[in-house]
Amino acid sequence: MVSSTSASLAEVRLSPGGVPLLPAEPGAGAPAWASEHRDPLRAAVAEHGCVLVRGLGLSGPADVAVVFERLAGALMKDREAFAAREVYPAGVYSSSAWPANQPMCMHHELSYRLEFPGLLLFACLGAPTEGGATAVSDSPTVLDALPADLVRRFEQEGWLLTRSYNNEIGATVAESFGTDDRAEIENYCRAHAIEFEWQPDGGLRTRQRRSAIVPHPVTGRRCWFNQVAFLNEWTMDPEIREYLVDVYGADALPFNTRFGGGDPIGEDVVALLNRVYEANTAREPWQAGDLMLVDNIRTAHSREPFEGPREVLVGLADPVRLADLVPSADAGAR
């Protein structure tokens, strides 16, 4: 006899340019369905890099928190966030605050940390009237499509994230570090290989060097794993970039990325990265009640511009240490 679990997995629908889709019929409710299907769902993520479950009928943050816990256990805290989030109980967060008319291009969540989530969980409570998909892209495929000389440079140097915290753009110091106590922030930075400098006006500037390419912890496949394009100045809308340069100066943008050795990353390189991502993007419009699980190392994700209200909750799970993947990175090296 074929179990109901196996039968459900056999129904994962694959389509060109689409996200692997699994229809669900949770007769006993979403939490019970999640408990029953945890292992095969995790197996589907391992096979496809992500899976979108449709039909669960998730109805609120409390319902989402229970489903996330059944599928992933304890959830991680969001530290070093680049944008503000609303915090719900049990480690569930809102999507990052970001203008609805601006895309969040492909990236791997918290890939600039020394410890990052291996699994992302998304739950849609309210779908927008237009756009707003959480699109995905396979990082080994992206890596293979990049020029060999560019890959070699990033592999040798890694990438550098620079941040200038303020109270207007992006997450504040307190939102990012979970405290506004200077001593605690400094201790955190020292422990996580982040260079820091307090400014005369009380602002904070940081620099952290990270690996741009890592082996997957299970398969060993090399993955393009970073936020080089997303947090770079050349991905911004030109008018927004010009405004930020005028207000903060070219060397004090809220966030920017460089080659690991400190050289600027040219507009042509950022455009190339975004073109490769777009050529390897899969998307499925959200429907209210949807659940999506994403392997954060193998699969990059984005958020497309949208119109109308959009409510997507997020969980971060399965922490992975960079030093376990790249031993030389235990002090923030490549």
TrEMBL record:
<dbReference type="InterPro" id="IPR003819">
    <property type="entry name" value="TauD/TfdA-like"/>
</dbReference>
<feature type="domain" description="TauD/TfdA-like">
    <location>
        <begin position="31"/>
        <end position="313"/>
    </location>
</feature>
<dbReference type="GO" id="GO:0051213">
    <property type="term" value="F:dioxygenase activity"/>
</dbReference>
<dbReference type="InterPro" id="IPR050411">
    <property type="entry name" value="AlphaKG_dependent_hydroxylases"/>
</dbReference>
<keyword id="KW-0560">Oxidoreductase</keyword>
<dbReference type="GO" id="GO:0017000">
    <property type="term" value="P:antibiotic biosynthetic process"/>
</dbReference>
<dbReference type="Pfam" id="PF02668">
    <property type="entry name" value="TauD"/>
</dbReference>
<keyword id="KW-0408">Iron</keyword>
<protein>
    <submittedName>
        <fullName>TauD/TfdA family dioxygenase</fullName>
        <ecNumber>1.14.11.-</ecNumber>
    </submittedName>
</protein>
<dbReference type="InterPro" id="IPR042098">
    <property type="entry name" value="TauD-like_sf"/>
</dbReference>
<keyword id="KW-0045">Antibiotic biosynthesis</keyword>
<keyword id="KW-0223">Dioxygenase</keyword>
